[in-house]
Amino acid sequence: MRRLLTAGLMLAAMLPVTLARAQAQAPERWLHIKVDSKDAQGEVVRVNVPLSMAEKVLPAIHSKDLQDGKVKFKAHTEDVDIRALLEAVRTAGDNEFVTVQSKKENVRVAKSGGYLLVKVRGNGEKPENVDIKIPFTVVEALLSAGEDELDIAAAIRALSAHGDTELVTVTDKTETVRIWVDSKNAEE
Q1: How many domains does the structure of the chain reveal?
Q2: CA angle at residue 107 from 38 to 102, to 5 degrees?
Q3: N or C: which end of the chain has fewer CB within 10 A?
């Protein structure tokens, strides 16, 4: 009995070290983008980028709206403060916040399990379905930049801390777009 107790205490003492090593050796996270066109040309696009590389490359891009890993945008759109709106959603419980149904499309915005969810279902001649599932920690990281900026590099760092997650899926009659993060260096 004493040996079992001693062995149990030794295992308990080693557990934090073992967990720290496991976290330090966590697999690289990869951002995948897959676009399949169903038109006559049948174009296919595949992007598989390690998040660590994306985080290093973004600050090196200096274009009109993208500078140092941050994108300029209007935080106040048509008299709506997007940051205040997202903060209100972040601090609220899981819920479906917006539902819009029309002849052209149905839209649903919700929060569930730490994710911001947006679902659009197209009706009509050119139906398009959009599913967006963003961890709220990533939304917070995006908004961690200055006013009127989105911090893309911070969002990538936040994504690195998540497990496998499907971010965006768009399907219509002519193409399918899928964006996800996992620990595989190639698409599924």
Answers
A1: 1
A2: 95
A3: N
